[in-house]
Specification:
A hairpin with a 4-residue loop joins strand 5 and strand 6. By secondary structure, this protein is an alpha+beta fold. Helices cover 43% and strands 22% of the residues. A six-stranded antiparallel β-sheet has the order 2-1-6-5-4-3.
Length: 171
């Protein structure tokens, strides 16, 4: 799926795999000096990854994203109660971010759903992306897919990045 910005994350939101188009938009966790960081920590803990684009969401999408992320981490912590990395992640986020700590105390179950964000790319400016997260329960993986609505300026910008990525792969 090289034409769709796509990444795969563990149940605790650690990156496992991503395609070149994802790296063009969000930064490549494998780049020297980049932090292959946990998605939850990137949002709640330390901010954006170096080399990545800035992500903006309206208040409703931010709330939905945060509630879903915390609910997913709670499921991971419940499923793997002896996993030290998950426990340390949750503990660190509770200490680092009052919003995370408040959401953690709610014990919410939040259904998945589509989200929308504005990615501010260093070169191309704002790109409005829709996002779906497919969860594979048996494998404890999240597949994150992003796309732009066809016929929009965002789709044109994504096409440009897609072409650049394909050209770089060829040569």
């Amino acid at each position: 799926m090289s034409d769709t910005p796509l990444a795969v994350f563990t149940a605790a939101w650690d990156p496992v795999q991503w395609n070149p188009l994802w790296a063009q938009l969000f930064g490549d966790p494998a780049e020297p000096g980049a932090r292959a960081q946990n998605l939850a920590w990137g949002h709640f803990g330390s901010g954006r990854q170096e080399g990545g684009s800035r992500i903006e969401r309206d208040a409703a999408h931010t709330d939905a994203f945060e509630r879903r992320m915390v609910a997913d981490l709670r499921r991971a912590a419940d499923r793997y109660p002896d996993d030290r990395a998950v426990a340390e992640l949750v503990s660190g986020l509770r200490e680092a971010n009052p919003r995370f700590a408040e959401l953690w105390t709610r014990y919410e179950t939040v259904p998945g759903g589509r989200s929308r964000k504005t990615l501010v790319h260093a070169e191309l400016g704002e790109i409005v992306l829709d996002c779906d997260i497919l969860t594979i329960e048996c494998a404890d993986l999240h597949i994150v897919l992003n796309w732009a609505e066809p016929g929009t300026p965002a789709a044109d910008k994504l096409d440009l990045l897609r072409d650049r990525t394909a050209a770089a792969a060829r040569g």
